[in-house]
Design brief:
- By secondary structure, this protein is an alpha+beta fold.
- Helices cover 29% and strands 32% of the residues.
- The chain contains four helices and ten strands.
- A four-stranded antiparallel beta sheet has the order 3-10-8-5. A four-stranded antiparallel beta sheet has the order 7-6-4-9, with no helix packed on it.
- The protein starts with a helix and ends with a strand.
């Protein structure tokens, strides 16, 4: 089973709201378990508190810019490109524990640049940027379980 087939299977299971699925084809075994509906509510609540935490250090670096910067994001969010997760898994911001993150807010990004890793069934999938620009926000925490289509990063295109 290749990655495309696996992605289609996961999308189908999400669409049909199937919580658990197991497939055995020859020597290949695939077992997928989705979390109950309660965790996504918790995850979405966890996403919002992390946003100010990401924005706060930026305001702290440039004194006097903290107050004007707070109203700017809602105005400029319309022009932001959102990078979404193509798969269900666990979000990792760095290649290994203890190493620096692939990207951080304020970094200039190029098309194809690795933004993070999403682990799905012991496979480490590199998520690449699909637009060049400046990373404005990281929308998920390291080690957080993520859903298909969940917003991961906000990028201001060049």
């Amino acid at each position: 089973m290749n990655q495309k087939e696996l992605k289609e299977l996961i999308e189908f299971l999400i669409e049909k709201d199937i919580a658990e699925f197991e497939l055995e084809r020859g020597d290949v075994k695939v077992k997928i378990k989705r979390a109950a509906e309660a965790p996504p509510a918790v995850l979405s609540a966890a996403v919002h508190p992390s946003q100010p935490a990401v924005a706060a250090p930026a305001a702290g670096r440039v004194e006097g810019a903290g107050h004007p910067a707070a109203p700017e994001p809602p105005e400029s969010e319309e022009g932001l490109h959102i990078v979404k997760s193509p798969i269900v898994g666990t979000f990792y911001e760095s290649p290994s524990p203890g190493s620096p993150p692939f990207v951080k807010p304020g970094d200039m990004l190029e098309v194809g640049q690795v933004l993070c890793i999403v682990e799905a069934m012991k496979l480490m999938n590199e998520i690449e940027c699909d637009v060049a620009g400046e990373l404005v926000k990281k929308l998920v925490a390291n080690g957080q379980p993520i859903e298909y289509g969940q917003e991961l990063f906000a990028v201001r295109p060049k």
